[in-house]
Amino acid sequence: MITNEMRTMRTLDQLKALYHQRTTGSRAMYERARQVLPGGAARGATAFNPHPLYGSRANGALLTDIDGNDYVDFNLEGGSCLFGHCSPIVMDRVREQLRISEVQSIASPLEVEVAERVCRMIDCVEMLRFVNSGSEACAIAARICRAHTGRPMIAMCEGHHHGQLDTLLFSHYGPPAGDDSAPATIRDSLGMSPGEDHNVLMLPFNDAAVAAQLIERYADRLAAVFLEPMTIFGGAIPAEPDFVHALRRTTSRHGILLVVDEVPAGIRIGKGGAISHYDVRPDLFITGKALAGGLPIGMYGGRRDILEPLLSPPYDRSNKALSSGTFSGNPTVMSACLAVLEAVEDGSVNARLNALGDHTRSALRDLAANLGVPMYVTGKHSIFGVHFSDASPRSSRDVRRDNRRLDFAMAMMAQGILWPAGRIAGFLSTAHGEEHIEQLVTACRISAQAVYQSTR
Length: 456
Fold this sequence. Notes:
With 456 residues, the chain is an alpha/beta fold. The protein folds into 2 domains: 4-74 and 348-454, Aspartate Aminotransferase, domain 1, CATH 3.90.1150; 88-344, Aspartate Aminotransferase, domain 2. It has helices at 4-7, 12-22, 24-33, 76-79, 88-98, 109-121, 134-149, 208-217, 241-254, 304-311, 331-344, 348-371, 396-400, 405-414, 434-454; strands at 55-59, 62-65, 70-73, 127-131, 153-157, 178-179, 182-183, 200-203, 222-227, 230-231, 237-238, 257-262, 284-288, 298-302, 375-380, 383-388, 417-418, 426-427. Strands 4-14-13-12-9-5-8 form a 7-stranded mixed beta sheet, sandwiched between helices. A 4-stranded mixed beta sheet has the order 1-2-3-17. Strands 15-16-18 form a 3-stranded antiparallel beta sheet. The radius of gyration is 22 Å and the shape is globular. The two termini are 29 Å apart.
């Protein structure tokens, strides 16, 4: 809730002080946590300076921290919570499954039913495998592409996020490197295998001509091109249609696989996923997050002629690609997936969310116009982003030039808006209503003014 005190705040320093004032319990927990957790957090996504928030409970569109502050959640665990937190749609089905079994060492009928439903909803998916995260799905998909084509290289777009494993951990987290038309392939972490970067080609996002030229140049070595139809964590920027079509034409001409990564999108967008809006059929498709309504999930699928020869038993490392995992396809997560897929089957949930996304982006754009500041709103469907720049961003390279994101995020969180500081993209759920959008816009007005005043 935006209080009268918040409405009177004009400076970034005031909002930062408010963050500290409201979160003394989180600060104390941080001091305790940093003794046993690097950075005081169990994962990089929740680490935040000067200290993370620590939650106590969640329900609907709200999260509550250990200080008792409520936050309207526009992070939703990276877009996973399609129906908000603790939705009966998901929770009731999971409780029912837990009375029967949590995991089991044999196959489950649930995995068959979920796979059938996914194939009906995402028409480019003829067969699929479940894993436990988007990172896992992306890395195994890359392995399958190399196995199928016999070629070593993977191409991806600068700023796109394909997980945290060595295979595709390049040119996402740091500042842009190389020319606009020739982005460099930069390892995003210490400790990665030497030489991995030589097998990853970086493409400029939304530059159709240059990307096609680069693919042509390396065609005889390229196994696949990976693409996010919307760069979710690179700024909620949709791919331009001519760019997607250029990738499909060029890859098809050279027998290169086109892999669409919709880990945060996919089911969240609706039937066919985001890629269906481009009238393009990829060879492989990856999703996760919203598919299980908040539980851990990853999935890759696509053409039968690619997957069946490589994955069907018996396993032999000389002619098969490995894809397994103790918890892959476990019945607890499959029960959540089934609940989500049943709920979105008729399309009404996605239509409602996409309309709410249109309304949210429109309200934020009206705010930017009224404030008279260069604030640009990106996104599509139920996903949105807010950027401070002199021009509307077309790629994550444009987004990374803005150094005010973290200040803006803290200002929003001081006012009870859980804003995705590092991930940039905001998400909507069926638990969000008009009152939550009004709070978002009000907090954004106060935060944007404070951020701009601090940079004058």
